[in-house]
Please model this.
Amino acid sequence: MKKFECPCGYIYDPDIGDPANGIAAGTPFEDVPEDWVCPKCGAEKEFFEEME
Model:
């Protein structure tokens, strides 16, 4: 599964998810709810870029 990076530098890793905000480990970025925001800076999901 691919990782996605926020402009602030936070990396969403699907192997880890974001358990503190209700996103279970193993959740692909595509399956993260549209209203989820970066836990570090609050940026919306649309601002994340897929990592190579």
Remarks:
- The chain is about 0% helix and 10% strand.
- The first strand starts at residue 4 and ends at 5.
- The CA atoms of residues 6 and 48 lie 5 Å apart.
- The two ends are 11 Å apart (CA to CA).
